[in-house]
Prior knowledge:
Elements: H1 10-46, H2 49-59
Amino acid sequence: MNKPRTIPDAETRARSVANWREAIRKIDAVTLALDELIAMVEEHNRHSPLTLYRLAKCKGEAVEQKSQT
């Protein structure tokens, strides 16, 4: 049969809680960094000539194309 599970002592629980808090803190830091990166990419895309061209085309506005010589 399976060995019955026991509740860890207070010191083990405290270490486990501290480890989980540290892991969560690191995950939060990575999430914040990714949020900042996403914001930078979205800002770049808003000013991208290709995005502006596609938006104008979608709205039915006249789109000027530069002639390539």
